Amino acid sequence: MPANYSGTWDIVDNENFEGYMVALGIDFATRKIAGMLKPQKIVEQDGDSFNIKTLTSFRNYTTSFKIGEEFEEITKGLDNKKCQTTVNWDNDKLVCVQKGEKKNRGWTHWMEGDTLYLRLKAAVHYTVGSLCQHIAAD
Ligand code: VL7
């Protein structure tokens, strides 16, 4: 049985979000707005099938994938890039690789107790960790 990430999660803290956005080439004005946001995540999971929504008052972003199946991801409303994306299990961690223009791009989700974590990375020198809190299960 894989881990179950389903639920509604409120991000309570971001670490180096600015550095991650710089690595993606996001312009100054957009970074200032985005840096203030505390997105909410809604994860719908059916075994190895996922739908992850990241919601804010500014922009929303949705990804759907099946574990181990590469798909074309357009990071619309973020840095608007095309990636060949694959998500796999690493034990109970969700590990995403986003192949494309930016090197070393991807993210990892894991859970500790009632807390969901997300680390996003792009390029080599910039990482962002988002600390999220589990607020309600489906
Ligand atoms: C993606 C933001 C910053 C541009 C707008 C800010 C809007 C919210 O990849 C993500 O989640 C994965 C794992 O849960 C599933 O898709 C989150 C948000 C990172 C990157 C770029 C700033 C413009 C922020 C939509």
Descriptive overview:
With 138 residues, the protein is mostly beta strands. 11% of the residues lie in helices and 55% in strands. The chain has a 10-stranded antiparallel β-sheet. The longest helix is centred in the N-terminal third of the chain and has 8 residues, at 17-24. The protein is globular. 1,3-dihydroxypropan-2-yl (9Z,12Z)-octadeca-9,12-dienoate binds next to α1, α2, β3 and β4.
Order of helices and strands: EHHEEEEEEEEE
Please indicate the percent range of residues in DSSP E strands (runs of 2 or more).
over 45%
Ligands bound, unique: 1,3-dihydroxypropan-2-yl (9Z,12Z)-octadeca-9,12-dienoate
How many strands in all?
A: 10
Give the number of helices.
Answer: 2
Mean pLDDT level: 90
Largest sheet: 10 strands, antiparallel
Name the overall outline: globular
End-to-end gap: 18 Å
Structural category: mainly beta
**Helix content, binned percent:** 10-25%
Strand order of the largest sheet: 4-3-2-1-10-9-8-7-6-5
List low-confidence stretches: none
Radius of gyration: 14 Å
Could you name the key traits of this structure?
10 strands, 2 helices, 11% helix, mainly beta, 138 residues, ten-stranded antiparallel beta sheet, single chain, 55% strand, binds 1,3-dihydroxypropan-2-yl (9Z,12Z)-octadeca-9,12-dienoate
